[in-house]
Amino acid sequence: MAKRVDVFYGGRPYSIGGRDIDDIRAEIAAALALGHGWLTVNDGEGVAQTTDLLITPGVDVTLADIPGD
Q1: Where are the beta strands (DSSP E) in 1-69?
Q2: Three-state secondary structure call for residue 31
Q3: 49: burial class by Cβ within 10 Å (0-12, 13-18, 19+)?
Q4: 62 within 8 A of 39, measured Cβ to Cβ
């Protein structure tokens, strides 16, 4: 499992900890199959704040797997 997955959405960086990148890809694909959905991510450095990103067709989302030690 990765240390975290970095998510780039709307030109801003976010992160998701403790999840496998393939699971996140599947969650995004399921949201797109329904037409939209929400992806819960962490926003901020140091003290992360949970936020939800609206996943819809046409919105660029990039995932980067950050390996653990």
Answers
A1: 4-9, 12-17, 37-43, 49-55, 61-66
A2: helix
A3: exposed
A4: no
Adjacent-strand bridge partners of 7:
14, 63
Scanning the structure block, which residue is given the tokens 């704040």? Answer: 49
Coil, strand or helix at 20: coil
Per the DSSP assignment, residues forming a β-bridge with 40 are 52
The verdict on pTM exceeding 0.85 is yes
Give me the amino acid identity at 48.
A
pLDDT band at 26 (very low <50, low <70, confident <90, very high): very high
Number of helical (H) and strand (E) elements in the chain, helices listed first:
1, 5
pLDDT of res. 64: 95
Distance between CA atoms of residues 59 and 49, nearest Å: 22
